[in-house]
Design brief:
Chain A is mainly α. Chain A has helices at 3-22, 24-50, 66-98, 106-127, 141-163, 172-195, 205-238, 245-259, 273-284, 286-300, 311-333, 336-342, 346-376, 383-413, 422-466, 470-477. The chains are: A mainly alpha, B alpha+beta.
Amino acid sequence: MSVKETDNLSTKAACTGLIDASCRLPLLALFGVAAVWLVIGLALALIASLTFHQPEMFAGCAAFTYGHVSAAANDALVYGFAIPAALGVMLWIFARLSEVELVLPLVPFVAANLWFLGVLGGIGAIFAGESSGYTWLEFPRAAAVLLFAAFLLVAVSAVATFGQRKNRELYPSHWFLLAALLWFPWIYASANVMLLPSQPVRGVAQAIINWWYADNLIFVWLALVGLGVAFYFLPKFAGKPLFSRFYSQFAFWALIICGTSCGIPYGAPVPAWLPTLSSVAAALLIVPLFVIFVIFAKTICGAQTECRGGSFCYIKFGTAAFFLISGPMMVASACPHFATLTQFTWFQNAQTNWQILGFFATIILGAAYDILPRVMGIALPFPKFVRFQHWAFIIGNLILLVSLVGAGFKQGANNYDLAVTLPFLRAATLGWLFLLLGSLMFAANIFVMSIKWKLALVKTVIIAVKAPLVTKTAEVKS
Amino acid sequence: MKNGLTVFLAAFVVLAASWMAFVLAPALQQGREQQTMVLNSSDFWPQQRTGAATLGLQVYRANGCAACHTEQIQQGGVACDVVLTSAGKNHPEVVSNLVASLNLKNLTELEAGAVADKITAVGGKSETHIYATGGDITRGWGIRRSVAADYLYDAPVQLGTLRAGPDLGNIGARLPDANILLNHLYAPKSVTTDSLMPSFKFLFEVKKIGATPSPDALNLPKEFAPAAGYEIVPKPEAQQLVAYLLSLRANASLYEAPFTPPTVSTNAPANK
């Protein structure tokens, strides 16, 4: 190693510290928002699930109809948890890959607060009966505008950081994350502009746009971010380079081309060319799914790192298996014969839940545990919780998957009779309970960490205030 | 894909293509849809809702009814029956012998055409009746599948994704009784004993019976009735919601979903 290279390495280590520190404020805010809404969302999902134990539980209460609680739970999980957490991890990865400090760190910090307000307003509106009535777009206009503005603010900081990168060549994660930055504002703006004005587009075009949006948000956007993050962390944990640049480029193209057209369900009351196009796209989705599986397998195989329940295990087992269940489920539900059995059943919920809480949450929480100590400069307050949370999520997700898929098949085979699915739905409650427990552990880590940091800040301020004014006295003496 | 611009353009082109196919094209194709004619009739379809039903759609939205109910009827396919109407100028026995040798029920469109041709060839006259089969039709939820035209006046269109309860796409024709629907909303078990639907009591008021009982008060079975001297009166929201439910009909024969309406031959009341 030449003198120049060792020099480079030491400056690099110093730089990495600075880069991490520059992300501290926005990341703490974004992860904080995510943790709060993850807990709230899972608690709401648990409450919604209780309806199947005792239908009359909230019968007298207009705010707590099943329609309100389940919609609020879904939105809290996607808008409250998934997107802010994704943005936090994205900012850090952009700064790290660019090897520069985060540009405009205060902007995403402000954006995180706006985002929180937007989600709060949106969830409040759902409970007040002011939801828009479109799936995944329940938030009313005011909340949607806040979310849109907040996303753009974060994107400004991310793109500015990206623009200043030292190594001009792009890493595979860049493609996925940059595409995600473009994807969300586009789909969110066009869906809201077409659907939420007082005169939305006419008739069934609303439903088509709604389906397109839901597919692009839940499947494509979460997959783009999840894979982008996984492709960054996997090689680091495995201690060897990503396999391979060409494969991931192919996966990227195939995923966005096929994934973006899968939204329209079979048999929908729309012109036949739309569901046909979606079915074909969904069938082709097998190709990127297979390639992604190969990338994961080849990158992980022969990894040097020992597995002791740390975040590596988490991602290693999580991502590959998790994505590869949700994807084929979606492909299957686009096949006409299969769709007649599973359409309008809990099978669809099982797939969506798996995509959000199985695939996406696993990667993002694993990444957050890895990033947080670096960014904060202190260790996680409850390192054991990481392991508990990880197992709670795996068990919870599996219970949820098995019970909801079982409920779906049972329901589809019995003329949509809810009564036959009740044992399954009651078992699903247990799954939600596990997930809620896990989310509480994640939240505990985040909030204790942020309180510790704030206390340290206060201490520093007090010391600074108490300290004698060294420089001035020195100047006077001289 | 070595610089930011390439990635941006790649994502842009893919998303733009998907946007044009799934947002722009439907907005142009479906967004400009107009009323159509009901087949073999001078009626227009769909009819604009009444004021109460239009408000009821908002009650349906506000309470999140679409979380458990779909509004889209699906069918497996269509089948045809050929019905001999007259023997025409030929000997009745010849025609009836021919007809007896043919299968006239449950045919595909092509088969029905061939059978009709054979009957015409011997001088008889026939009608082809078409009806939807399979899927929700077998479940008794509708007589034809839902088509895009049915939702022309909905805003928001709430097709729903989950059938925790039955499909409501044709509920207005299937259960055209406002009192039953109101009772079902107030106490689902009073109408369907094993119903798992939560009660929507908050859409109703419990009132002390005044000088004259309210004409709108629910007529409930004993175990669901309020205490003596009280009555259950639906709030305007409940009335509107029921008006909306009654307006949900997919029972007009259309070009894209044709069926032969059953001929009403008696004056007897329809089965309930």
